[in-house]
């Protein structure tokens, strides 16, 4: 990925829906062993400071399907500015690599569009690329993604809640198994419960629904890599390939470098050392 020593590279990680900076910790440890610095971002409404629905931690979870999210007013602009702020903090490193996963592709792409001088390469790990279609929902609802799992995980009406809500603390074994099969099917079972209970329930609705515009002169000039997940059940390989192809048609002067990882949508949980190795190629 770079001819510079890894000691000159810093990776900036942007998580996907319902996750946080913590998801990247095993990958960051692996990168540190390879000599690379890294920092992980908590997007607004995620991480330890994420506001939860008032009944989420109570017995029976009262109001979970109907209570408006306290993240309803958050915007993709808010999330992109958080990424830009982090990129500014690390720009003193010789090389900055922005890595984004899944729904985080929208805010990360907007950040790169706004401040391309802060990014030397952007890596999409089975992540939304807005160059072909501007909304993540445009790809999630495409025929290429028709076999994806996870539709039954949503709780309540996203339009009324102002968020795409899931229930990581569900007591329903069938629901928990669907969550595992969708995102973590190759993560060791003995670790899965820790991963799911660390998730937040709400993704601000703006993230998958707000159009993100990128241009050839700014986002398009940044070298970019797509890391495909070959057995991804949340964002199918077919729709990953569609995003790559449409982005390359839109920005033909700077096409993606494409690599493929085995396994699920969550290699940071299932195989973080392999993910770290792929990032430094």
TrEMBL record:
Signal peptide: none annotated. Gene3D superfamilies: alpha/beta hydrolase (3.40.50.1820). Keywords: Hydrolase. Pfam families: Abhydrolase_6 (PF12697). The keyword ATP-binding does not apply. GO terms for molecular function: hydrolase activity. This is Alpha/beta hydrolase. It comes from the Bacteria. PANTHER family: AB HYDROLASE-1 DOMAIN-CONTAINING PROTEIN-RELATED, ESTERASE_LIPASE_THIOESTERASE DOMAIN-CONTAINING PROTEIN. Residues 11-278 form the AB hydrolase-1 domain.
């Amino acid at each position: 990925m770079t001819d510079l020593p890894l000691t000159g590279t810093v990776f900036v990680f942007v998580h996907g829906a319902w996750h946080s900076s913590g998801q990247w910790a095993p990958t960051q440890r692996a990168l540190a062993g390879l000599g690379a610095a890294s920092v992980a971002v908590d997007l607004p409404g995620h991480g330890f400071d994420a506001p939860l629905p008032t009944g989420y931690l109570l017995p029976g979870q009262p109001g979970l399907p109907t209570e408006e999210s306290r993240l309803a007013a958050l915007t993709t602009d808010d999330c992109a500015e958080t990424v830009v702020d982090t990129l500014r903090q690390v720009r003193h490193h010789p090389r900055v690599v922005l890595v984004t996963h899944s729904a985080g592709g929208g805010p990360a792409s907007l950040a790169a569009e706004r401040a391309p001088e802060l990014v030397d390469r952007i890596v999409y790990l089975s992540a939304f690329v807005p160059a072909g279609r501007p909304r993540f929902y445009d790809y999630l609802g495409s025929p290429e993604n028709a076999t994806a799992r996870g539709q039954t995980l949503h709780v309540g009406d996203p339009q009324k809640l102002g968020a795409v809500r899931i229930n990581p603390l569900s007591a329903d074994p069938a629901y928990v198994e669907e969550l595992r099969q969708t995102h973590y099917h190759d993560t060791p079972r003995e670790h899965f419960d820790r991963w799911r209970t660390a998730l937040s329930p709400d993704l601000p609705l703006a993230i998958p629904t707000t159009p993100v515009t990128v241009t050839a002169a700014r986002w398009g000039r940044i070298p970019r890599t797509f890391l495909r997940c070959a057995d991804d059940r949340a964002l199918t390989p077919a729709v990953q390939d569609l995003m790559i192809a449409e982005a390359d048609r839109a920005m033909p002067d700077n096409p993606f470098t494409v690599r493929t990882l085995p396994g699920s949508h969550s290699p940071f949980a299932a195989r973080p050392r392999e993910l770290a190795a792929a990032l430094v190629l």
